[in-house]
Design goal:
Elements: H1 3-37, E1 45-47, E2 66-71, H2 77-89, E3 95-101, H3 106-114, E4 122-128, H4 157-160, E5 166-170, E6 174-176, H5 180-184, E7 194-198, E8 208-209, E9 213-214, H6 227-230, E10 241-249, H7 250-255, H8 258-272, H9 285-291, E11 297-298, H10 318-323, E12 326-328, H11 343-347, H12 361-368
Parallel strand pairs: 2-3, 2-5, 3-4, 7-11
Antiparallel strand pairs: 1-4, 5-10, 6-12, 7-10, 8-9
Helix pairs in contact: 8-9
Length: 369
């Protein structure tokens, strides 16, 4: 065999080897991308979207991804948009938004995000299957409002963000004025699956709800006349906490089966009526209070300055509102509604709906007049 033929054979073998290596790497990359956006495979949640095109400064392999979970119902979609906008514009961190919706809302949300200043955020839209709540919640004729399925999304964080070790949950009626990285870095004590802001903290004063008394301790949420509650030996005077904003250690959450524990108490309430009859807050609060009794860490009170929606009046000074890291309009007076305190602060982050489906109620009233 001539020297020239040997060279040709060697060259052909080298090309074949190169192509094999290239093919192997391509398959590995494809697998990695599929894993990056794949669903957890658990019934009840269906990923719809994944948008990875983010500003160059936010894409840094050295930065830890910060998962932020927000529920977005059709009638409150403007709230979720404003919350996301405020988070995105006050941080340079690598934030991934997990936006939980019901069927029919995804298209509206996607069009809103794609045609606004938020078109560069990283997000995933996840559909919430209401069948998950069968046998766990029931309508109470004594309560004026009907059950809102998405309020229970916070119970299923490890399913929503299956690959994360830590995540932030927040309601849609908030505005973030600080860097979300600081909240994410909240230290959790060993064995604690979550950190909340307690209702007895110094930033948010105790609130008196008409007909419910002081809504800042356990007796305001649980019926201590029920034997099952008394058997838990939880002090009725224990300070409650607000579950509208919290940081979760998902590794510990899964280890302690927190979701299963919460579902257990939801079912027991349906059977036995364990929640307080004068319950003024969300029906998601009582099971969380039971499961996390004396087993939770705390977040900086300035990261949940709340009760802005408890009345139309202004309870805080302008200086305090400006200094707050997170403002929370929990209560009946939402900032997109007819009357709300500090609505000008919220509206600074609101992005008008390009489809026209969502509009500020007070603006609509002004135009009508």
């Amino acid at each position: 065999m001539s020297f020239r033929k040997v060279n040709i054979i060697v060259l052909v073998l080298a090309v074949v080897l190169f192509l094999l290596v290239l093919h192997h790497n391509f398959l590995g990359l494809s697998s990695l991308l599929r894993n990056e956006v794949s669903d957890s495979g658990i019934v009840g949640f269906q990923p719809i979207d994944f948008v990875p095109n983010v500003p160059q400064q936010a894409v840094d392999g050295r930065q830890e991804e910060i998962p932020v979970v927000i529920a977005a119902s059709e009638d409150r979609l403007g709230g979720a948009i404003a919350a996301i906008n405020s988070i995105q514009h006050n941080t340079r961190s690598n934030v991934m938004f997990y936006i939980v919706t019901l069927n029919g809302t995804a298209d509206h949300l996607r069009s809103w995000l794609s045609s606004s200043a938020l078109k560069t955020i990283r997000y995933k839209i996840v559909n919430f299957d209401t069948k998950l709540l069968e046998g766990k919640v029931k309508e109470d004729p004594d309560q004026g409002e009907s059950i809102k399925p998405l309020t229970f999304a916070r119970f299923y964080l490890p399913i929503l963000v299956p690959s994360a070790k830590k995540a932030i949950y927040m309601d849609d009626d908030v505005i973030v004025q600080g860097d979300i990285l600081a909240l994410y870095n909240t230290p959790l004590k060993p064995g604690h699956a979550a950190a909340f802001s307690e209702d007895c903290d110094s930033a948010s004063t105790k609130v008196v709800i008409r007909g419910a008394g002081n809504q800042y301790n356990y007796i305001g949420y649980l019926d201590y006349k029920k034997e099952r509650i008394r058997k838990l030996s939880m002090k009725a005077s224990t300070c409650s906490f607000n579950p509208g904003v919290f940081v979760a250690n998902l590794t510990e959450w899964k280890k302690q089966n927190i979701t299963n524990q919460l579902e257990k108490w939801m079912k027991l309430n349906v059977e036995e009526g364990l929640y307080s009859r004068t319950l003024a807050g969300s029906t998601t609060t009582p099971p969380l209070l039971i499961v996390f009794y004396q087993q939770h860490s705390t977040i900086d009170p300035m990261w949940n300055v709340r009760h802005l929606g408890s009345s139309a009046g202004k309870r805080y000074s302008p200086q305090f509102v400006k200094a707050a890291k997170l403002l929370h309009w929990n209560g009946h007076f939402k900032p997109w509604g007819r009357t709300a305190s500090y609505s000008d602060v919220w509206e600074k982050w609101y992005i008008p709906d390009p489809t026209g489906k969502f509009s500020l109620i007070r603006r609509h009233m002004e135009i009508s007049i």
